[in-house]
Description:
GO terms for molecular function: glycosyltransferase activity. Keywords: Carbohydrate metabolism, Glucose metabolism, Glycosyltransferase, Transferase. With 425 residues, the protein is of the alpha/beta class. The chain has 16 helices and 13 strands. A 7-stranded mixed sheet has the order 1-3-2-4-5-6-7, covered by helices on one side. A 6-stranded parallel sheet has the order 10-9-8-11-12-13, with helices on both faces. Helix 4 packs across helix 5, helix 8 packs across helix 11 and helix 9 crosses helix 14 (373-384).
Amino acid sequence: MEKRRSIRPKISVGRHAGAVSINVDSYRPLVGDELIDELIMLARELSGVRICHLNSTALGGGVAELLSRYLPLLQTFGLSADWRIIHGTREFFVVTKAFHNALQGAQYDLTEADRRIYLQANEESAKLIGREYDVYIVHDPQSAAIRHFIGENRAKWIWRCHIDSSSPDPNVSQFFKPFIEAYDALVFTMPEFLLPGLQIKRVAFIPPAIDPLATKNMEIPIELCKRAIADSGVDLTRPLLVQVSRFDPWKDPLGVIRAYRLVKEAVPGVQLALIGGMAGDDPEGWHILEQIEEEAANDRDLYVFTNLAGVGSMEVNVFQRGCDLIIQKSIREGFGLVVSEALWKEKPVIAGRAGGIPMQFPEGYHRYLVDTVEECADRVLHLLKRPGDRGDFGRAGREHVRKHFLFPRLLRNELRLIKDLLHPG
Ligand code: UDP
C-alpha cells in the first residue's frame, strides 16, 4: 500500500465465483451451537435450491465486501449459490449513483435520458442472467428492474435494499416503485429505511453482518499491526485516528479532516489516516479524492491510503486494530459495516448518527454518536484522554457485535425468509 496512490477502476462484468472454503465449526465458539445447528437444519431443508445473488460490482463498498465472503459460506453449508454481476457502462453508473443518492434523499432532476440508460442496461443484463435459479436476491437499485425484464418466471425474487430510502426524491421513487413492487419480498436493513408508499407482498427487516473469520476481521497480534503501520510512515508514538470508507460525500471525509484539525489544536501530535477507495459502480469518488489530496498536500500528519476499489482487507484490519480511535462520520449511511468491523476489534468508534450506525453501538455508548464536526472533535478529545474508557467501550462493542452482527445470524434470517417463500405455511 502506498501513500496517495490512485488507480482508475475497471467495471467488472459477469459471474464472480467465491473461491474460499470455510469451516462451519469455527463459528461455534463465537455464536453458539444452537445457531449453527439451526443453520445446518435450514440448509438441509433447502438442499437442491439454487440461489443467485445479483449486484453491480465485485469491488468496493459493503455489498461486494459482504458477498465475497457470504457466497462461500452458503456453499459451505451445502447450498447452491452463485454471485452474478450486471453489465454497465460508465454512463450507466453515473445514472445509478445519482439514483442511489436520490433514494437516500438528494434532490434529482430525473430525465428521459436517465430512464433510457437505466432501463436499457437492465434489459440487456436480464437477457444474460441464467433462468436456472429458484431464488434471486437482487441488491440495491442498480439492477432492480431486472425482475421486470425477466417477465413470467417460476422463481422467487427478493429485492435487498441496503440504503436508507425513507425520504427519497419523489420522481426517482415514482420511477422505481413498479419495478420494486414486482418482487415477491423486499428486505430493508431496518423499518425506518422503507421506501414510502409501496404496495408490498412481503417485507423483512434484516441488518447486514460481518464475517469474524474473514481476513478483514481475523485476529492479528497487535505488535504485528503496529509494525506494519509504522512501515507505512505513521508515527505510533503519537495518537492515530482512522476512517475507513469509500471517498464519498455521504461519508464526509472532509468533515473528518475538519474535526481532526480541531483536535490538533489541543493535541498537536495527533495524526489522521483516511483509508479508502472507489467502488466500481461509483464514479463520484475521484472528485472527492482530489479535494482530500489537496488537504493532505501540506499536512504531514494527514495520511491518505488508497488503492484500486479500496485498500486490501489485511491492511484495513491492521489499521483498525493498531489505531487509537476509529471515526465514521457518515451523514447518510446504509448500515456502515466498518462500525461493526472496528467494534469487533474492541476499537472505540465515534460515528455519525446516521442509518444503521446507532443500532451497532452498545448500550450506554450512544453519546459517541455525533451530528457535527465540533461534536466529533469533542468526543475524540474526550476518549483520547481516557484510555480506560476506550477499553470499556471497545469490549462492550465487541460483545454487542458478537450477539447481533456476525454472519451466522444474517444467514439464519435469509434462509428463514427463503424457506417461507418457497414453502409457505
Ligand atoms: N473497505 C475496504 N477498503 C477500503 C475502504 C473500505 O476494504 O479502502 C471496506 C470496509 O472495510 C467495509 C466496506 O468496504 O467492509 C464498506 O462497507 P460500508 O457498509 O461501511 O460502506 P459502503 O461502502 O457500503 O457504503
